[in-house]
Structures are given as structure tokens and as C-alpha cells.
Write a structure and sequence with these properties.
Number of helices of chain B: 15
Helix content of chain A: over 70%
Strand order of the largest sheet of chain A: 1-2
Number of domains of chain A: 1
Strand content of chain A: under 5%
Largest sheet of chain A: 2 strands, parallel
Shape of chain A: globular
CATH architecture of chain A: Orthogonal Bundle
Structural class of chain B: alpha/beta
Shape of chain B: globular
Order of helices and strands of chain B: HEHEHEHHEEHHHEHHEEHHEHHH
CATH class of the largest domain in chain B: Alpha Beta
Number of strands of chain B: 9
Radius of gyration of chain A: 25 Å
Number of strands of chain A: 2
Helix content of chain B: 40-55%
Oligomer: heterodimer
Distance between the termini of chain A: 35 Å
Distance between the termini of chain B: 71 Å
Structural class of chain A: mainly alpha
Largest interface: A-B, 85 and 74 residues
CATH class of chain A: Mainly Alpha
Number of domains of chain B: 3
Strand content of chain B: 5-15%
Radius of gyration of chain B: 24 Å
Order of helices and strands of chain A: HHHHEHHHHHHHHHEHHHHHHHHHH
């Protein structure tokens, strides 16, 4: 009765569940902040006097560079494949996702090998022009800030592409039509109407790419770019000051929080934008002749650089070593990778559903803040997150052990830390941001009237979720699980530190050789990671196709949604999806 | 009409439980495996060394003793893991690739003294902790390589020469923050004092042909490619490059210089081992330590990795022999370890990596 009077549907234990998830996921971050309270010495006077300006400057340049490059590549490609038809468009529409499967550290090694002095490109140039030494001619240095921006941009743009594409597809045609009727040209319409509508989704994609840039160590280290992450590792490992390193980590968290809040503020000013989807999308405009092929070239370029060239290089390196590499041991590594990635992606999506659904049931600032807090782990460099995971897990294990010893005289040893649970937990926490973003976005496409109808019919929150929401958003859930899966396959630093004895994954196996610049011996493993990453990407692409065939702009989540029952909204109902779509992090 | 809150609560809890349940299954499986193994003879290792460099020795140990070696390899975070696991840590031994990590472990109170006459006979006193908290296993010489084509033999003979302005724009090194370079800087700080060492480091920085980058092999390669004329590398990379088809050309482009032969000798670093404070398999761990310090494993290190055995009585053949005898800096490695933080900051002050 009380519920009826307040007009608020019961949320059951969901908000509590969301709080629990957020608390669990914040534990490692809190552990890092805790460590920051106990530096071995005050590192800041030294840093400020020497390297800090460089670290901050480089970090900002890198973020700006990767931001602009992923934005331009992702949005341009998404716009082209959704608004126009040109040769190979259908193929390119999913090929554009492939760089997602390419680990950043592998691509860095490959391109360096290709483009440095002794690589085939410069070798050929020297042969053609008769140069001999490095001083005889100029060639851009791969191992540089520019190189890092290019490479990170080319593997991270799919986040922007995926989300922007989904958003462009969802837009109904009538707003642009109105704009055209009122005299704006197609270009102006794009910039004044379509792009602003897609802005939240694009912002989420760019934010994900930038957080990944912020926590990257492999690529920047290899390219000798001194970012804050490099400084963190230096203070931690060379100066033996874990607390000082954690303080730099805290500064990086502030960067991440700033990024997210900018995106959030930008979004709050626009509500009610994704509505009335049943007016349908616009037919694609056909580009003929030179224009068509130009569009093909523009979309093919990122695929070529982010996937084609590196994959070819990998294959050529792997060919010699493949028969020798295909051992039972290697298959064991592959199974470990699949096990960790599979479990972590299922957990990450399950937890994301709890958070996102709780937020749907309680649309308050507090719940929004909780959803963002739960995704903070993404902004922390992997090795630091790993230490953050060890602290609470080992504390828990030791407490249980001490209790059992005191009570029964028998200890339990380490139950959680030092098992694959620790690795799975770290992967789940690290990539929860990605799954929350995707799941929230899917939820926001489901009309509120559906909840109202279900609840009116006497279904509880849990039953409504199970009977109506989950079937509707299962495509979005699949997307979320697949992206997390691909990310976990590539995950390196946390896995290295947290794994149990004799536990190698493909990523750690590849790393052992690649870190010694023995790229040929690491190639088979890297190829397998890419191949395993390809399968989900192809599944993603199939759902894209399905969505496209249905021509159902209502469907896609941050990608696509499998066909399923659609929310039935009576004509004229405003599906007020006031809730913003994907939110990756706080 | 009234919804049943209990049902809802149960369902919402179910999602969480499902996750936890999956995770627990993992744990249970893993734990069972570990306990089963614990009944047998085994020793657990945390290693900063890459598996392919050390596994051959572990395999030989298992073949000789029947004791299984379980290992986790990581370049970072092993100390923190050990620290947090506390007395329940399953690790018996830690292997590192330089003196720095060994002394970090000791300073954090994570090691225990080991007294073994056999090990002490094999490992010289300056390459182990007096109380037995850590032991060197192999020695690495930080050498200079010079271009055969552009540098005369005898033109450069010491680390100090690297700062001579005549080498302006002709020197290549990896990152100044790499543990190998940090240890070298630390040893110069110990010899010359801070002010002189910093002037030296600034001099080397001024002589660099390019921003510090790549690993040690990359410096030899840069010489082969004409980017620079002098590089600073660990000696065993010569052996590795010589054995690789592609890298052979880099090896062939350089001459080897063991620096400071007229004075204190060439800077040496070690890879080493330490027994953890709470080692659950002390006997097996000690057996592995003695095996690795023993003649057979010491020879394997030389043959497989091209590293110098710490035991000076082991005669090495092959490539190491062809390099000839040289004078080693006898500096106590604890002194190097103690100067590491200061050396790292010195590299910051001269902007070595900029």
C-alpha cells in the first residue's frame, strides 16, 4: 500500500546488491589508496624538481593524441557505414572491429620490427636509394610519442566505433529530416543534429579508450615515452617506494575521474534524446564511383593498420615456429586463457546486470555514483591493481586461517590468493567498467512502460528482470561478455603477478619471449590470442548483420542485439529513456 | 497483490551467488591440486627470471632428485605478493635477476638466513649475504661494445671514458632506469662520491646518440646500423646474438671491451636466490639451492645462458672461454643495492631518459 502511494516500484535487494558489487570492486582501489598513505619517503619534492612536469605533459599529450585519433577514426567509420552504402561496406562494417582482438604490446613489437632501421621497410628504401647508414636519410622514429599515439589509436578506436555506430543506427530519421526541411545541408545536419545526439555514446567510447591509454604500461615502456605510469613503476620498483608509487596511482585516478565527470556533465544536459525509434532509420545513401571507393579506402585503412598488417606479420613469424610450438603445454596455456577469460566475462556481465538493474530501479544520483565507483578499477594500471587485489584477498585468507587455527588448531592456508580465483577476480574488476557500460546502454533501450506493465501485473523486480529484461537485452549482454572476453585474453600485468604456480596463459607465454624481443618465438601464442579474440568479434559481427537485416534501429546495444521479442509500446507513448546509456565509469 | 520481497531478495542474491559459486569451484579445484601435490616432494618458487632461462636447471634438478619445482614468473609484484601472503605463503624460494630485488626482499624481512657449507664453498663472499639471506648464482659483466669499423681497440677502456666529450653523439644505452644501469651508476657513486658520479652521468647523457631505448641487444644492433659507436651491455647477450641467425650480424659488428682492467675491474651484477622467511618446504628448498650452486648447474648456466658461474673454480668452455679472463670489480654488492634509490634519482636529475 505504501509503495502504491509513493508511486515507487519496489526495488527489493537490488540496490543493496549494487552497493555490495561496488564495494567489492572498490576494495583493490581502496587498497591502493591505503598504500599511498605510507610512502617510504616523500617522493614529491624530487619528482616536482625533476621528472613530474615531463610525466604529466607526456600523459596529457598521449591522452589528447589518442583521444583525437580514436574519435576521428571511430566516428568517421561509424558514420560512413551507417549513412552510406559503398563497395565492401557490409564486410568492412565488421572488419572494423577486428583491431580489438590485437593486443597492444604485440602490435608495438610488430611495428617496431617492421619500421625500424633493420626492418624490411627501411631496408627496401636503402636498397632503392643506395643509402647505407642511419645518418644518410630521415625516417620517422617508431619508438616515439607519435608512434605510441598512432598504435594505441589504431587498436583502441573500435570502442568508439562500436558505440558510435550503434548510436547512429538508433537515431530515427525524423530529426535530421526536420533539419533538412528547415534548410540545413547534410553536413550541417550531421554536425548540429546527428552528432550531438550520438555524443553520449561517443563520449563513453572515447572515455574507455582513454582509460585504457592511461593504464597502459607495455606500449609506452617499449616506446620509451615517460608517462605517469612509467613514473609510477620507477618510484615503486627502482626507488623501492610502493607507497610513493601508489600516490602517483592516486593522481592517475584523479585524471580518470576528471575524464568521466566531463563526459557525465556533457550528457546530463541532454535528456530524452533517444526516443520514438519506431519511425525507423533512414535508408543508406548510395555512394557511386570514386566517392564510393574513397569511402571504402577510409574504412579499410584502420582495419589494415590495426589488423591486416600486424596479422600478416604474425603469421609470417609464426609459420617457422608453429609446428614446434603446438605442444600439449601450449594447449594447456590456451585452456587456461579460455578458462580465465570465460569465467571473468560471465562474472563481469552478471555483476554489471546487478549494478545496471539496481540503477534502473532507483534512478538516484547515489545509484549513478555507485555504478561509476564500481568501474574505477579500469583506470588503474594492471600491476598496481594486482597489488590492490592481493592486499584484501591475502588479508581475508590469513584471517580465516588464523581463526581456524585458534578455534580448531588446523589452518586453511591461502584459500583465494594464489589461485586462479585471484586472476579471475582481477580481470572481472578491471573490465567491469566495460561490461557496465554495455549493459547500462542496453537497459536504456528498454521502454519504462514495460517495467510498469510487468509490475502492474504483479511481477516483482527479479521476475521482471528474468521474464522481460534479460530476454530483451540478451544481445547487449552477449556484446558485453564478448568484449570483456577479448580484453581478458589480452590481459597481462595482473595475470602475471596473481597466477598460481605453473599457471601460464597465452598472454604470459607471449610476454616471456616478447619482453626479450624474441618475437618469432612469441608469434604462435600471439596468433592464438588474436584467433581466440576473432571468434567473439565474428559473433559480434553476425549480430550486427542480424540487426541490420531486421533494419531495427531499436535493437542494438553498444553493438548489436540478437532478434528477440521487442518491447511493445502503444503508439504515441513517449519512451522516455531519460536514463543515459552506457556509463563506463564514475 | 503484495509482491513477495523474500522471493525477490532470493533471486537477486542468486545472481551474486552464481558468480561466487563459479569462483569457488575454481578455488576448490586449484586447492585440491595443490594439496595433492603437497603430499609429494616439491618446492615452490617465485621468480623474476624468465622461465626459458631457468627451466632447464629446474628440470635437471627434478630428474636428479625427484623433487618437483613449481614456479610463478613475474617481473614485478612478487615481493608484494610474498609480503601480503605472510606466513601462509606457499613460496620457498625467490629468484631474481639483479642484486636490487634480493636486497629489497631482505630489507622487507621476507627472507631467512641459510647456512650451508656447500653453498658457501661455491659462492664467493662478495656475492652472498654474510648472514646467508641471499646468494648469487650467476655473475654478469656490464661490458662495453664498440664498433669494429669506427673505433680503434684501446680507444675506450673504462666506464669513466664514456663521459669524455670525444664520444659526443656516439654512445648508446638502454633506459637509465633499468636495474642493470642503475646498479652501474650505483657502483660509480660508491667509487667517486655523488657529485663526481653525477657529473659523469651528465657527461654520458650528453654523449648519447639517441634517447635511451630498447634492451641490451638493441645497443649492439644500433652500432651495427651506424647509429652509434659505443654501447653498454651485459656480456651474455653476445653469446645469445651469436647463436641467432638474424642477430649474428650485430654480434659481428662489435668488439668487446671489459672496462677498467687497469683499475678496479669490470662492474658485475648477479642473478640470485633467497629462501623465504616462512618457507614450507625448507629441506627441498635447500636441496634446490645447493643443486644450483653446485658444479653441474653452474656449468649449465654458462652453457645455456652464457652467464659466468659465481663459482670461480668452474672452468668455462666455449664462447665464455674465448672472451678470456678479466678483472672483476670486487665491490660488495650490498653497497650497490644500498645506492639504488639514489642512483635512480640521479638519473632523473640529469634527465637521462629525456
Amino acid at each position: 500500500m505504501r509503495r502504491l502511494m509513493t508511486g515507487r516500484p519496489g526495488a527489493g535487494a537490488w540496490p543493496l546488491g549494487a552497493v555490495a558489487v561496488a564495494a567489492l570492486c572498490l576494495l583493490p582501489v581502496a587498497a591502493v589508496l591505503w598504500l599511498a598513505l605510507f610512502p617510504a619517503e616523500n617522493i614529491w619534492p624530487h619528482l616536482i624538481a625533476t621528472t613530474l612536469p615531463g610525466y604529466v605533459g607526456n600523459t596529457l599529450i598521449l591522452l589528447a593524441g589518442v583521444g583525437v585519433s580514436t574519435l576521428l577514426t571511430g566516428v568517421t567509420a561509424a558514420r560512413l557505414v551507417t549513412a552510406f552504402d559503398f563497395p565492401l561496406r557490409k564486410l568492412l562494417e565488421w572488419l572494423l572491429l577486428l583491431p580489438l582482438a590485437m593486443p597492444g604490446y604485440v602490435i608495438a613489437y610488430l611495428y617496431t620490427d617492421l619500421l625500424e632501421f633493420a626492418g624490411p621497410v627501411q631496408h627496401a628504401l636503402r636498397a632503392v636509394f643506395g643509402w647505407r647508414l642511419a645518418g644518410d636519410y630521415w625516417f620517422p622514429e617508431v619508438r616515439s610519442m607519435g608512434g605510441a599515439i598512432m598504435l594505441l589509436g589504431v587498436v583502441l578506436y573500435p570502442y568508439v566505433y562500436l558505440l558510435a555506430r550503434a548510436s547512429f543506427l538508433e537515431q530515427s530519421s525524423y530529426l535530421p529530416d526536420v533539419s533538412r526541411l528547415l534548410g540545413r545541408g547534410p553536413v550541417a545536419t550531421f554536425f548540429y543534429v546527428e552528432l550531438p545526439i550520438a555524443r553520449p555514446a561517443i563520449a563513453v567510447g572515447v572515455a574507455l579508450a582513454l582509460m585504457e591509454t592511461l593504464n597502459d604500461f607495455g606500449t609506452v615502456d617499449f616506446f620509451s615515452v615517460q608517462t605517469l605510469t612509467a613514473g609510477l613503476y620507477d618510484v615503486w620498483l627502482n626507488m623501492g617506494n610502493l607507497g610513493g608509487g601508489a600516490q602517483i596511482g592516486a593522481v592517475m585516478l584523479t585524471f580518470a575521474a576528471l575524464l568521466i565527470s566531463l563526459e557525465y556533465i556533457g550528457r546530463r544536459r541532454r535528456r530524452f534524446y533517444q526516443s520514438a525509434t519506431r519511425f525507423g532509420g533512414r535508408p543508406r545513401q548510395r555512394l557511386r564511383g570514386r566517392n564510393g571507393w574513397a569511402a571504402t579506402a577510409v574504412c579499410a585503412a584502420p582495419v589494415l593498420f590495426g589488423f591486416g598488417i600486424p596479422a600478416l606479420l604474425l603469421v609470417s613469424h609464426a609459420l617457422d615456429h608453429l609446428p614446434a610450438a603446438w605442444t600439449p603445454r601450449f594447449r594447456g596455456y590456451a585452456l587456461n586463457s579460455l578458462w580465465v577469460s570465460g569465467t571473468a566475462s560471465v562474472s563481469a556481465v552478471a555483476l554489471a546486470v546487478v549494478v545496471a538493474y539496481a540503477r534502473r530501479l532507483r534512478r538516484t544520483t547515489v545509484m549513478a555514483a555507485i555504478a561509476r565507483a564500481a568501474s574505477l578499477g579500469y583506470a588503474v594500471p594492471g600491476a598496481v591493481l594486482a597489488v590492490g587485489v592481493i592486499v584484501p584477498l591475502a588479508a581475508f585468507d590469513n584471517a580465516v586461517d588464523a581463526f581456524l587455527r585458534a578455534r580448531f588448531g588446523v589452518g586453511s592456508g591461502l584459500i583465494l590468493s594464489g589461485t586462479s580465483f585471484a586472476v579471475i577476480a582481477a580481470c572481472t574488476i578491471r573490465f567491469l567498467a566495460v561490461s557496465i557500460g554495455a549493459v547500462e546502454s542496453s537497459f536504456s533501450k528498454v521502454s519504462d512502460s514495460l517495467d510498469m506493465a510487468a509490475r502492474t501485473l504483479g511481477h516483482g523486480a527479479g521476475r521482471t528482470l528474468r521474464r522481460f529484461h534479460l530476454p530483451l537485452i540478451r544481445g547487449g549482454l552477449l556484446t558485453a561478455a564478448l568484449i570483456v572476453f577479448v580484453d581478458c585474453m589480452k590481459e597481462l600485468p595482473a595475470t602475471l603477478i596473481l597466477r598460481p604456480f605453473n599457471f601460464e596463459t597465452l598472454a604470459t607465454h607471449v610476454y616471456h619471449f616478447a619482453s626479450d624481443e624474441l618475437i618469432e618465438r612469441s608469434a604462435p601464442g600471439a596468433l592464438f590470442i588474436v584467433a581466440a579474440g576473432l571468434i567473439p568479434v565474428i559473433i559480434l559481427s553476425r549480430t550486427i548483420d542480424t540487426a541490420a537485416r531486421l533494419d531495427s534501429p531499436a535493437a542494438p546495444g553498444p553493438g548489436p542485439v540478437a532478434p528477440g521479442p521487442r518491447p511493445v509500446a502503444p503508439p504515441g507513448t513517449v519512451t522516455s529513456t531519460a536514463a543515459p546509456p552506457a556509463a563506463p565509469a564514475p | 497483490m503484495k509482491p513477495k520481497p523474500t522471493l525477490r531478495a532470493i533471486f537477486s542474491a542468486a545472481v551474486l551467488t552464481a558468480t561466487v559459486a563459479t569462483a569457488t569451484t575454481v578455488t576448490v579445484t586449484t586447492v585440491t591440486v595443490t594439496t595433492a601435490a603437497a603430499a609429494e616432494r616439491e618446492v615452490n618458487v617465485y621468480s623474476y627470471r624468465q622461465p626459458f632461462l631457468i627451466e632447464p636447471m629446474f628440470d635437471a634438478f627434478t630428474a636428479a632428485t625427484g623433487i618437483q619445482v613449481n614456479a610463478v614468473y613475474a617481473k614485478t609484484g612478487m615481493l608484494e605478493r610474498l609480503q601480503n601472503e605472510g606466513r601462509n605463503s606457499p613460496a620457498d624460494l625467490v629468484f631474481t635477476v639483479d642484486i636490487g630485488r634480493l636486497s629489497d626482499l631482505q630489507n622487507a624481512g621476507l627472507t631467512q638466513p641459510v647456512v650451508s657449507a656447500a653453498i658457501n664453498r661455491s659462492v664467493p663472499a662478495n656475492m652472498r649475504d654474510p648472514a646467508g639471506h641471499w646468494f648469487g648464482l650467476t655473475a654478469r659483466a656490464r661490458i662495453l661494445v664498440t664498433s669494429k669499423a669506427r673505433v680503434r681497440r684501446g680507444e675506450i677502456t673504462s666506464y669513466e671514458d664514456l663521459a669524455d666529450p670525444k664520444w659526443r653523439g656516439r654512445v648508446c644505452t638502454r633506459s637509465g632506469k633499468h636495474p642493470y644501469n642503475i646498479a652501474l651508476i650505483a657502483s660509480l657513486m660508491h667509487r667517486h662520491g655523488d657529485a663526481q658520479a653525477q657529473a659523469w652521468l651528465a657527461g654520458v647523457k650528453a654523449n648519447l646518440a639517441r634517447k635511451p631505448q630498447g634492451n641490451d641487444r638493441a645497443q649492439a644492433r644500433a652500432i651495427a646500423e651506424g647509429v652509434c659507436d659505443v654501447g653498454v651491455i651485459n656480456h651474455y647477450y653476445l653469446h645469445k646474438m651469436a647463436a641467432d641467425d638474424k642477430q649474428k650480424a650485430w654480434f659481428e659488428a662489435v668488439d668487446v671491451v671489459f672496462p677498467n682492467q687497469a683499475g678496479r675491474g669490470t662492474h658485475m651484477n648477479i642473478s640470485g636466490m633467497a629462501m623465504t622467511r616462512h618457507a614450507p618446504h625448507r629441506d627441498a628448498a635447500l636441496a634446490l639451492m645447493e643443486f644450483l650452486a653446485g658444479d653441474r648447474a653452474q656449468r649449465m648456466y654458462a652453457e645455456v645462458n652464457g652467464e659466468y658461474p659465481v663459482n670461480p673454480r668452474i672452468r668455462v668452455g666455449g664462447y665464455l672461454q674465448s672472451l678470456g679472463d678479466f678483472k672483476r670489480d670486487g665491490l660488495d654488492l650490498s653497497a650497490v643495492a644500498a645506492n639504488r634509490g639514489a642512483a635512480s634519482k640521479m638519473a632523473d636529475r640529469v634527465g637521462y631518459n629525456d
